[in-house]
Amino acid sequence: MGKYGLSPFLYPVYGLGGLPESFSRLCAIHGGTYMLNTPVDEVLFNSDGQVTGVRSGEQTARAPLIICDPSYVKDLKKTKTVGRVIRAICIMDHPIPNTDNVPSIQIILPQKQLNRSSDIYITMVSHAHAVCAKDLYIAIVSATVETANPQAEIEPALALLGGVREMFVSVSELHEPTNNAVKENLHITRSYDATSHFETSDQEVLAIYERIVGEKLNLNIQPTDDEDY
């Protein structure tokens, strides 16, 4: 217990799903409750338009504020569609060619090089991260959709992979909030964009923290042994 310190941020062996799993354990230690496999049927508001909790079936969970992604409020008309993103998950039996056989890598194809308005991203992980069987590699290609043929847009990235055994392609809408988060105490994140380095997600987390707490998060302050994060 405490082998890795008080933070749940470990290198994501077993995939990014390891991060919410670590946070759930840390949350439980400090009295938080996780409700797994529990759909949100309704976001509840009082007469002043402020959130009071959520309803799931016959159960109600009360809360002074709610943080959620757009999928939880899609029927409330509190977001707008701002674009689409295409993602291709590619299973391969080799690393990406000309990358020194590294077990993981991130490649960004610059927009100017491709005559686009946005970059294309490639992330590759492997059995070294316990996300697939030995001698297999997983590459994720993502891009902001700019034409009527999204899959053709990522062909330059797919061409770098050197052959794919199996590929799963999806196109998702991008949403961003339009509500008054401070007035409603309902803080809606933007949809995950095409970037693969999480910079935009990090920036949004910091912005939401400042909006809720009223001050910027200072990551330079380290807690003492008897203090909580």
What does this structure look like?
This protein is an alpha+beta fold. The chain has two domains: 18-80 and 177-212, FAD/NAD(P)-binding domain, CATH 3.50.50; 82-174, Guanine Nucleotide Dissociation Inhibitor, domain 2. It is 19% helix and 29% strand. It is built from six helices and ten strands. It has helices at residues 18-29, 111-114, 150-153, 155-158, 181-184, 199-213, and strands at residues 42-45, 51-56, 59-62, 66-68, 79-92, 105-109, 120-126, 137-144, 166-177, 186-188. The strands form three sheets. The protein has a five-stranded antiparallel beta sheet with strand order 6-7-8-5-9. The model has no long low-confidence stretch (mean pLDDT 91).
Number of domain units: 2
Q: Which blocks of ≥5 consecutive residues have pLDDT under 50?
A: none
* CATH structural architecture of the largest domain: 3-Layer(bba) Sandwich
Give the N-to-C terminal Cα separation: 16 Å
DSSP helix fraction = 10-25%
What's the tally of helices?
Answer: 6
- CATH homologous superfamily caption of the largest domain: FAD/NAD(P)-binding domain
| Global morphology | globular
